[in-house]
Amino acid sequence: MSAREIFALRRQGRHAEALDLARRAHAGAGEGAPDIWLLRAYAWVLYDRIRQAVDAHEAGRLSPTALHAEISPALREFSRMADPLRRDSAFSQVLRLAGKVSGVWPDFLAFAHWAGIDDFTWDDHKPFVDETGRKLDDLRTRFVRAVCRATVAKAGAEGPEAASVAWGREVLDRALEGAPDDQWLNYYRSRLHLADGETAPASRRLIPVLRRQGRAAWVWGLLGEILEEAGARGDALICLIHATRLAREEQELGQLRIRLARLLALDSRFDEAAEQLRQAMRYREQHGYRIPPDLAALCAANWFAAAVPRAPAPVDAEAEALLRGLERANLGYSPGVIDHVNTAKALSYVATGATSGFVLPHGRFPAIRTLPPGTVVEVGHAAADGPAIDWRPSAADTLPGLCERFTGVLDRQEDQAFAFLRGPGGDVFVPPDLAAGIAVGSWPGRNCLAIRRTDKKGRTGWRAVRLSEPDA
């Protein structure tokens, strides 16, 4: 019995015979060094069996329960023989199949714990392009996200699964160290914080996700859950109502309508609560789904029979204001100075150092368009190298080492469109737009406000942004 025979049976589509031969060959291999080709043949036959079940599930021909019954024995068998195949393509491809059904296969996290995340091939770390030309994340990244998602789903597990959950938490934290801006990793970490009763960090992790996915119902639903847990019931209502209006399909709302109905009823908004219950019941009845106990209990309440169902009013403005407030509460603010205003592109650039700064689009920050260069402000951001999320005026009018006042002799040569302010602290470059009204010659006792910046040629120096009248 050889690997070649097993591969030949596999090519002929005789998968049951190939698997039987692989098992007998593996059992008779003895204690010596493993035959890698035999193990590969064995693994690929198991892969065929698992893939057949996964494909049938994705096509709707196999229920999650039937899928579990099909793939669990095969993956347990794989885990008993595949350790020598780590970093082999056969190993990676079986993990790929497991990751595809991670959301419905209850044993995925335990399997992933055995497999680990460090034995993918070199190619598994490379993104790839599908048949439509869309660039997809690499296999390892997708597997790690599947681990994190499964960890969240089992966050409260006890007994044998607890060790796998603890490992999954470590995987998530490690992944965030390498990709701190990954929206899915931050979403999963937010969910874990909530499961641990840590509402403040749960909110912090979710805010940047919400800013990127502001039209997604699921992220507003999670924020509502966090705020309810934090005791902010009014804000939670805003989030949940907003989520119901953003959802494109009723199935997106799941338990959300039930949660919203309960909160509305606690606020004595019975007509609006009744509408949520009506929608939740109709969806389940149309699809033959069971009625969960909490939904049944709300529908049995005395107020429900007397209510006149109506939808809540839109809360778009309130939701945006809430998001802005939460962002500000979780931001770091950096002092900076408006370096220039680009009216053609409708943006202002705020310098925070000689080579650093933030772009503030006027469409998002309309009030900043009226502030001239040299105005000191503070820019709010979630990450040091992230985009501007907020800004506020500053009480300061200079920033040592970045924006300072200078006094000296204003010198403009006849053949130059620019000028220099020459003083004890060094020369300050006066660009042509400011120098245009200066007569040729040297003019003592002049003042300017200047910003220290590095130009495109790598030269760092002071550039005037505002000239003032000579001292009396």
Automatic annotation (TrEMBL):
Gene3D superfamilies: Tetratricopeptide repeat domain. Residues 404-467 form the TOTE conflict systems S1/CSD-like domain. It holds the Pfam family S1CSD-TOTE-2. It comes from the Bacteria. This is TOTE conflict systems S1/CSD-like domain-containing protein. It comes from Tistrella mobilis (strain KA081020-065). The lineage of its organism: Bacteria, Pseudomonadati, Pseudomonadota, Alphaproteobacteria, Geminicoccales.
